């Protein structure tokens, strides 16, 4: 099982998603800054954090868990 670091975006409606997977936490922190700049201008702003996530869970979220609200997903 390959572990990655990713940006977790928690939306006001209670769902979340992951983006910008990276091999190390420093790269993920840089991605987080870019994601924050992108969403800073919009009317909806997700709460952002960097989390460690397995490649399998990341792929599962991108394919089958759109709008996920499961409490067992990786947290910061």
Explain what this protein looks like in three dimensions.
- The chain has 76 residues and is an alpha+beta fold.
- It has one domain.
- It has 2 helices and 3 strands; from the N terminus they run E-E-H-E-H.
- The protein has a 3-stranded antiparallel β-sheet.
- The protein is globular.
- The two termini are 20 Å apart.
Whole-number tally of structural domains: 1
Tell me the fraction of residues in β-strands, as a range. 25-35%
The computed structural class is: alpha+beta
Number of E strands: 3
Shape annotation: globular
Q: pLDDT below 50 for ≥5 consecutive residues: which ranges?
A: none
- Put simply, the count of helices is 2
> Oligomeric state of the chains?
single chain
Distance between the termini: 20 Å
Helical residue percent?
25-40%
Q: Note the run of SSEs as H and E.
A: EEHEH
Strands in their spatial order, largest beta sheet: 2-1-3
Main sheet makeup: 3 strands, antiparallel
Task: Give a quick rundown of the structure.
This protein has helices at 25-40, 55-63, and strands spanning 3-10, 16-22, 47-54. The chain is of the alpha+beta class and 76 residues long. It has a three-stranded antiparallel β-sheet.
Topology:
Blueprint: E1 3-10, E2 16-22, H1 25-40, E3 47-54, H2 55-63
Antiparallel strand pairs: 1-2, 1-3
